[in-house]
Amino acid sequence: MLSSYRCWIAVLLSLPALALAQPAAPQSLKDIAQQAILSNPEVLQRWHAYLAADGERDAAFGNYLPRLDFTAGYGKERQDAPKLSYEYTVNSRSLTLTQMLYDGFATRNEVKRLDHSRRVRMFELYDASENAALEAARAYLDVLRYRRLVTLAEDNYVRHRAVFDQIQQKVQVGVGRRVDLEQAAGRLALAESNLLTETANLHDVSARFQRIIGFGPAKTMEEPTPLSKNLPPDIAGALRQAQQGNPTLQAAIENVRAADAARDVRKAAYQPRLDLRVRRDDGDNMRSIAGRSNYDTAEVVLSWNLLNGLSDVARSRQYAEQYNVARDIRDKTCRDTRQVLTIAFNDVRKLTEQLNYLDQHQLSTEKVHEAYRKQFDIGQRTLLDLLDTENELFQAKRAYTNGSFDLSIAYARTHAGLGNLLTALGLSRAGEQTLAELANWTPAQDAAEYCPPEGMQIYVADKAALDARAQEMLKESAAATVAAMAAARPQQKSPPAAVIATPSAPKADMQAKPVAVPAPAPAEPAAVPSAPPATTVEAVLDNALKQWLAAWSTRDVEAYLNAYAPNFTPAGDISREAWSQKRRQVLGRTEKIAIEVKDVQFNVQGEHAEARFRQSYRAPSFSDVVLKTLSWQQIDGKWLIVAETAEPVRP
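Above: the chain's sequence. Below: its structure in token form.
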């Protein structure tokens, strides 16, 4: 323990040199997290609290060992008797050896209690280290985030400045409108405001970085790799892992065990105490006997409190309630940990999917902006169109940047909830060599009673149903448009129409069956698509097929497997579970997938349907073309795949 403490002090003494040298070199997330842990006051406080608990435990263990006491005395004594009275000087020395033989297991239970208390302090140290690393990661990523946002704001200002200068030149030569210049000036002022806001945000997060780490961020900071490895596949597995490894919950469980041992300590008050005592006394004029004398005593002493004013009963009741308090704190800690981890785990899932949409929005906006810019230069787009795309492009890039850094922070939060953020960063816990027994630590029967490892049911929007609703809305809109056009047509004034009739037909027939040829009218946009609309069921199936292809192409394993019904029967002699595991492995190792389908045909029979199409699959290591048949079944209002077959296309 002393050597470990000296090593810790040696590390702390090196911190001023690290603090002076670190900003000059490129900073990495691992180095910053380590620096934050070593210099964090709360971590140091927890470390010293652990050392104090270790000393307290050793002090309690000393009750097992013998006790040796030496006493000496010198003084006057006076003795009065009916016929004798005299005064003399007493000089005495005493050496007593006491060994506890039985104390009602008070010492054993006290050592046990303090062992658990020492573990509580150790887990609190681990928790403080995890929190310090998480705050350091958040501060590090926020500095990188706002540096990038400042760059985006600068680019946005440059583009708006260029547009403003271009409009100003046109106004000066008399070919531009003054109102366009005012509009460009307003947007330029907004771009300047955005730039000022981002620089202020960068200053604030840099100051926060300095508070957490101890010094400011360096000019060069490495872009960290997202901490996406070694995460459980689902929330239930994450919660089970947290119950084993989250230091906050571990400390709460050890606190329950310490309170339970404290109850056992109080039971010793109802038991006798047995001590072995060996004593030697010598001196002058001792025990009213003149001259030098000595006494040797060896005895077994039994002491037993028979009545203590019921204080022991009340004390036992007190510690029993403190045990209940510890259990309640453990359950609350478990629920808090479960909430934090569930939210972080869901943020990882949500942001991973959201980044795909934000990236698509960013790429599409860039293409639109480039096209609008060229069209504006040749007069096919208005200034308002161009400025709107400039702002939309800035917001799209800003949203994607925020989303990517939010995802990195969500990964760090998830690891912290699991209790392995330091491991994910490649760091070791402070003082983890001091308690080797923690390697086999388990909550066992002391796990929280009212905190099962069950996550919240994640709501996933049924996009196929939403797409079907959109198709229905489109049909209703088209029908309303046609009805409005039909209602408005008789009110329109048009030139007389030419009446074409067969000469041999009677006059009555000519009047009854005229063919009107109206004069040419301005073309109106088509209200409905030229192709005949698909039925509602086929539209839903088409959207379900698209969702299945999208999940497969993006390697979204959960969405891909959710497209298959629980009663799905894989082709070949393989079980549903084995097929799912194999698909997870295949999609997990594939880097890029391209899938194209053609000639899709649906055959709907009530709650069953069949889709046949030509499928082209391309991957870096494999490609093929097959004729695929998917059998669908409507289950709880949702079309799911129940069978899948493929036939190779022969050349």
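The radius of gyration is 42 Å.
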